Amino acid sequence: LLFLWSITVSIFGIGGLLGSSGSRYLTVKFGKKKCLMCNNVLMIVAASIMGCSKISQSFEMILIGRFMCGLSAGLCVPLHHQYVGEISPRKLRGFANSTSSFFWSLGKAIGQISGQRELLGSQRLWPMLMASCGLPALVQLVTLPFFPESPPYLLMHKGDQEGCKKAIRQLWGEGQHQAEIDDIMKEKATMKNTKILSVLELVKEPAFRWQLYMIVILTATIQLCGINAV
């Protein structure tokens, strides 16, 4: 039982690792908006599987659902940053990207509060608690079709300049947006001369060694600062 519960907890992280590893390939091939929509479908399916696990008397369904949740979360984190940053005007880009950290913390807090035995953490209601992760995914799945694809993706990867202009007008309103389009074109020209490093190449690259040390130390020590207890 201890082994099964350990696997149930840790399999979320395994799914997250696989999801985040495949996010770059998927976004280049299919675009940010399509990937986000498919990712929401994946989360809704995972929530449905976990919600039905008690009725089916199957702990395997919890394992599968947790893995799919991790996969979805691993895809969502880089996708969210990229899409929100790319559809935001330049003056609001930093603020828009910072919202992910706020809502990530808010979601964890709501989940921990909802998981109390007096609320959804009871023996009768815990399947609803596990299925609740599908609600935000459903909201995004319904609303996302009204948003355009990322303008930089349309211009840099699809070469669709008219589609890019249309998306910018839909997002930022009518006006002169040539400066933003020029910035995207400059970024595209820069990327042509820049080699995309794999994870292994990044670890071996001496120029990024100190930045890598800082990220590893920060990520490791944040677990010791008491934020989880708070």
Automatic annotation (TrEMBL):
Keyword Transmembrane (UniProt): yes
Keyword check for Aminoacyl-tRNA synthetase: no
Pfam families in UniProt: Sugar_tr
Keywords: Membrane, Transmembrane, Transmembrane helix
MF terms (GO), sorted A to Z: D-glucose transmembrane transporter activity
Entry superkingdom: Eukaryota
Biological processes, Gene Ontology terms: D-glucose import; dehydroascorbic acid transport
InterPro entries hit by this protein: GLUT, MFS_dom, MFS_sugar_transport-like, MFS_trans_sf, Sugar_transporter_CS
Domain Major facilitator superfamily (MFS) profile: 1-230
Membrane topology term: Multi-pass membrane protein
Coiled-coil segments on the chain, per record: none
One GO CC annotation: plasma membrane
Annotated transmembrane regions: 6-26, 125-147, 210-229
Subcellular location: Membrane
Main location: membrane
PANTHER family hit by this protein: MAJOR FACILITATOR SUPERFAMILY (MFS) PROFILE DOMAIN-CONTAINING PROTEIN, SOLUTE CARRIER FAMILY 2
Protein name: GTR5 protein
Organism name: Hippolais icterina
